[in-house]
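Incident log, support desk, overnight shift.

02:14 A customer reports that sequence design results differ from what the structure should imply. Their input is reproduced verbatim below. On-call engineer (initials T.W.) acknowledged and began investigating.
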């Protein structure tokens, strides 16, 4: 077994390339902003970042590596340091911190200054991909590329020792969530989204505010401040996000801004009493500012004595995040843009447990609400479970299992209510568990059985129509249930009974 200490790297995406640089050289990640024009003999120098009174040159490595025209929308700026000098790299997105053993690095050699910026490649197990490691010294030595003297040398890690450290210090990503300073293990962050474009979704309920795009996919976006029991965040004040990977999928946690990536000794963590935090299971404790550099506190712009330390494990085990992660959209952004080749039914399907699995067009579901066992106030032999009151609306909740002739499922945290609206009236359908949001491209209809013109509710839920869901290579056929027609039938049936009475 190797006894070499792990080496730590900060990963980022650039023009389709997965790259990384040593964590000792990564000073901070800055949201993309308008650059200041500066003279430079190199076309790779895009301008300069005004960083607390210092103009820091910004380099576009995709130009250096001849990767085509400059993209129109950058994600962030990676500020890095080397031997008392500082510069920044333009990047699409940050992909988090990772570690590897020195023996797993595969050195790369180049005979010219450009080729020499690629120092090695390594397999990144947490994202199942190969990553190119940069030679920071070679980047700073690129022809025509300028750097400036580091205005904050006290922040520089000493020597190469950090990559070799065997102590129990942690790389932490510092962030601001509303007025609350927080920290999270940087190794747990799968990526950051400097300017998330929040879009409406049927998933928007509770702590989830909608979906955002990440790595070509739509993932649920969660208000971290609200999740922690600290009140709803003010989205109008601007926001960023970091991506957390769960076994079930990914979620984006919305917050104010990323402040820095630093290291802190594990023994510096402070215990926070359970009664002092609304959601104690989501926190490891607190990191005192005395364990960090003074510059971090100055840039925060307010008096701070500690950063609340988020528990990555606690977040991954949170029932709401587990449920949302399992609903991550399997449809890529290119699917949304170009549709499907066999597009007789090119739309997203909400899949859920119902005996086996079943599907309903996502556009039929206006929102998804958590199930409250307390609403089961009516007779258990019928399909009507009770009435859910949500935002001033009375929503009758029907057991979809009973409506389709199946046995009632056990009540568990996995049960959800799919809300369907017909002519301003709401109907909720309780399902045992949500599965995912998946693309569909084909919907065959099975031969009709029985007498024509039967009960519309039974026809809507008969499962006589199928739908093919999933991405190519992972497709399967599921019963297609028309919940819009089912809601309409239930409402019309109630209106007929009211007239008859």
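02:41 Re-run completed on a clean worker. Output:
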């Amino acid at each position: 077994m190797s006894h070499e200490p792990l080496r730590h790297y900060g990963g980022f995406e650039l023009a389709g390339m997965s790259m990384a640089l040593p964590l000792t050289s990564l000073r901070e990640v800055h949201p993309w902003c308008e650059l200041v024009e500066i003279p430079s003999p190199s076309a790779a120098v895009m301008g300069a970042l005004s960083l607390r009174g210092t103009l820091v040159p910004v380099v576009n490595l995709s130009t250096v590596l001849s990767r085509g025209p400059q993209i129109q929308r950058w994600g962030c700026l990676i500020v890095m340091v080397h031997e008392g000098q500082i510069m920044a790299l333009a990047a699409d997105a940050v992909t988090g911190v990772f570690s590897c053993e020195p023996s797993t690095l595969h050195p790369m050699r180049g005979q010219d200054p450009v080729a020499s910026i690629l120092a090695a490649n390594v397999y990144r197990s947490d994202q199942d991909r190969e990553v190119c490691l940069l030679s920071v010294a070679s980047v700073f030595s690129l022809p025509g590329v300028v750097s400036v003297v580091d205005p904050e040398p006290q922040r520089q890690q000493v020597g190469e020792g950090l990559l070799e450290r065997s102590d129990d210090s942690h790389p932490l990503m510092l962030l601001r969530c509303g007025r609350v300073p927080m920290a999270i293990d940087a190794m747990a962050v799968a990526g950051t989204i400097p300017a998330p474009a929040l879009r409406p979704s049927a998933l928007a309920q509770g702590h989830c505010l909608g979906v955002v795009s990440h790595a070509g996919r739509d993932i649920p976006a969660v208000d971290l401040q609200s999740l922690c029991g600290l009140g709803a965040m003010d989205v109008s004040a601007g926001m960023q996000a970091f991506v957390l990977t769960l076994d079930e999928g990914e979620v984006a946690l919305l917050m104010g801004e990323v402040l820095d990536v630093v290291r802190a000794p594990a023994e510096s963590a402070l215990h926070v009493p359970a009664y002092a935090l609304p959601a104690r299971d989501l926190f490891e404790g607190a990191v005192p500012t005395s364990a960090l550099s003074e510059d971090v506190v100055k840039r925060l712009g307010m008096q701070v004595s500690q950063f609340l330390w988020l528990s990555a494990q606690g977040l991954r085990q949170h029932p709401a995040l587990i449920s949302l992660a399992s609903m991550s959209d399997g449809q890529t952004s290119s699917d949304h843009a170009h549709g499907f080749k066999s597009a007789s039914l090119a739309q997203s399907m909400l899949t859920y447990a119902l005996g086996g699995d079943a599907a309903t067009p996502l556009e039929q579901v206006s929102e998804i609400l958590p199930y409250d066992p307390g609403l089961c106030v009516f007779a258990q032999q019928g399909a009507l479970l009770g009435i859910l009151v949500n935002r001033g609306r009375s929503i009758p909740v029907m057991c979809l299992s009973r409506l389709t002739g199946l046995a009632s499922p056990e009540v568990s945290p996995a049960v959800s209510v799919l809300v369907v609206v017909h002519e301003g009236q709401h109907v909720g359908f309780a399902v045992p568990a949500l599965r995912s949001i998946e693309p569909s491209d084909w919907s065959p209809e099975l031969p009709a059985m029985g007498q024509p013109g039967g009960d519309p509710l039974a026809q809507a839920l008969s499962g006589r129509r199928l739908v093919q869901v999933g991405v190519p290579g992972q497709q399967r056929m599921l019963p297609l249930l028309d919940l819009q027609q089912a809601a309409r039938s239930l409402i019309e049936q109630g209106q007929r009974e009211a007239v008859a009475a």
